[in-house]
Amino acid sequence: MKNLFYLIVAATMIIACSQAPKFTISGNIEGLPDGTVYLKQRGGGEATTLDSAKSTGGKFELKGAVEVPDLCILVLGERKQVPVLVENKAIHVAGKSDDLRNITITGSASQDEMKALEAKGTVINTKMKEIYGKYNEAKQKNDAVMQASLEKQLDSLDNAQTAMQKDFVTGNPNSFVAPVILQQIQYGMEADEIQGYLKKFSPEVMKSKSAKSLADRVTLLQSVAVGKTAPDFTMNDSIGTPVKLSDVYSKHAYTLVDFWASWCGPCRGENPNVVAVWKDYNAKGFNVLGVSYDTDKAKWLKAVASDKLTWSQVSDLKGWSNATAKIYGINSIPANLLLDKTGKIIGKNLRAEKLRERIAELLK
């Protein structure tokens, strides 16, 4: 009798396991070379492989399970990636390997929700493409006036698109698409703004890796918020001499740690403002430490000379993998921190007149 009971329990467990939610992703990608495809999910700064499968004649099938619907990346080859909102359903992916932007994904309700949101932004995206074309023409003609006008139009459209996305995030706290969209627009946001959105998400949505990643970012940004002591770091200057942050700020009343790069247009546009403030207030105790996110030393040094950046410059020449990116949570540039003589952060992202007004107030 006992043996019969154990057999029944075992059979029940097998049935329960076989009925556990899981996903299948069947692919049919025309022109895809035979090889291995991967389904990866990002979280905690790393990518985890959920499954892999051989692709033959462009056809493949991936299987697995996710706790809640979340964004994953379908890796079809080198530089061939397709974002997929995966949930425990039968999902189908079809299209052409040389036109991945127009891949068709069906079977995922979250993917359908994302597609509907993207459709709302089609008009804005089309208009932005038109203006980008005109901007490039103006740039080739060195028409600075037209470039400035077109830049304002692009900024306006970008703000409109971001506002639409923010409205979606705020208005859909139960949507698993919401944290994915928030990740796309959180660049430049401070901890309190991101946290404001996260507080509205349902407990289920907060289980997603997208939401958890945002929560981790809030924690990081809170550690380098105004009022905190700037984490120390040491980085080499252009001739290989180590420069320690604390050695720099301890010698000046106020130090601006300026994160920039030679390839960053807005950074280069802001440089003249920083130069002007440095010239007016350096003798009174204001200093700057430039931290470059360049990878090409020659281009970095050429920009330093061209923009007349006479203060100390450091870089590990690792681009977005710059050590300070992880320490300070820098994910967009230009960015800066204003430190006092003790290393306390007393300001963030002060640009143009705001920087001048703040320094003038402190050193009056």
Outline the structure in words:
The chain contains twelve helices and 15 strands. By secondary structure, the protein is α+β, with helices and mostly antiparallel strands. The protein has a five-stranded mixed β-sheet with strand order 13-12-11-14-15. Helix 3 (122-140) packs antiparallel against helix 4 (144-171), helix 6 packs antiparallel against helix 7 and helix 9 packs parallel to helix 12 (352-362). It starts with a helix and ends with a helix. The relative contact order is 0.08.
Assembly of the depicted chains: single chain
Number of helices: 12
Following the backbone from N to C, one meets helices and strands in this order, namely: HEEEEEEEEHHHHHHEEHEHEHEHEEH
Q: How many strands in all?
A: 15
Q: What's the alpha carbon Rg, rounded to whole Å?
A: 25 Å
- Percent strand: 25-35%
Task: Give the termini distance in whole angstroms.
Answer: 91 Å
